[in-house]
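Please, structure for the following, as tokens.
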Amino acid sequence: MLRTLSGRFLILTIIFVMLAEVLIFVPSIARFREDYLLSRLERAQIASLALLADDMISPDLEEELLRNAEVYNVVLRRNEARQLILQSPVPQPIHATFDLRDPPAMELIGDAMARLWDREARVIRVIGNPVREAGLLIEVTMETSGLRLAMIDYGLRILALSAVISIFTASLLFFSVRALLVKPIKGVVRAMQSYAANPEDARRILQPSARVTELREAEEALAKMETELTGALKQKERLAQLGGAVAKISHDLRNILTSAQLFVDRIEMSEDPGVRRMAPKLVNSITRAVNLTESTLAFGKAEEPPPKLTRVVLADIVEDVLDSERLAIGDDVDISMSEDVPTGMIVRADAEQLYRVLSNLVRNARQAIAQSGEGGEISVAAHEEDGAWVIEVADTGPGLPKKAQENLFTPFQGGARKGGAGLGLAIAAELIRGHGGMVTLERTGPEGTVFRIRLPMGEAA
């Protein structure tokens, strides 16, 4: 019971209501004491009227009047003259005097609490104003035992009523909380457990139904998260299946490319100058394809292999990339390519992976310009700064759309070209991270796009 939300809410409600009742109890008991003493003053005034009507009354009648008023004597001040109206023997000295003529509230509360804790029967003097202005002052002497018993009886009745109110209020709140909060929360928990049992089943995604605003917001956030997770799991499954298929295809493709490599070796012996000039580039392309298929066969971890860092001439790699892309340019669009790479710049990188990075960036730029139907220029520049090699790939294309910018390096989501898978930039970013560097989008817009590659000169970034 105490471990449940509704149970704890019930206990806290009872405690808080009782605390509120105690705060009400203290001034209430002080008010009861004041009323009790004022009633004794009123009784004493009524009893004194008999003597005022007849100056001579018998001792027995006087005693009966004082007994009915529950006082020992009555003093009435009329016309500035203080007169002892009724009297009887006082059993003990007067303990304290209390003036009820406009007393402060805190004084009344303090006197009431002191009376409750004092168990001794005391004789006190009480001073007040006569009823209906029947004099200037009335004063009585009385015993406190009856007052304390009346206060205790009143306090017990207040506490009993407070307990009933607390239990009744707590019960109403208990059932209200169960209906408005606990049951919906349990429903959300059951939906989460059902979804966790089979997160790929879209039918188990929570359907928001709560009428409480905060709970509905929580349900909507949970439903959104489950929807995204289900989509991610399905995409992961498709990627796993795709990886298996690619591994099989790569195995056979490697055998085919190996045979093609043997034929290329024979082509190099041709006497035709054009063939001899193109043969090295064909050899390099087939060699890269063989290396790529061999890397794909190590797809078990679904990540790129670590780079084999060597010192490579950057200008040679850039030249190979641009030559390959020039062959892919059609006759319909006028696209020019240029480079501004220092001839002697040597970078520390994996030559094959750096080629793939630059090839992806240049190919994306070429395809963007070709798709726009207008001519353009692609340039690759490099320089050194702050202990790093910086390579910039710029184009004068139409720029990246907003959706592509939001998911720029996310596989299958950052494609800027219709029909594109969005893998080129994701692969480039992953390969450069393996070198300890990073790929960033410097700027994009109608005037063109610039990507920046930063490779650290040290052992690690």
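Residues 298-302 have pLDDT under 50 and may be disordered. The radius of gyration is 49 Å.
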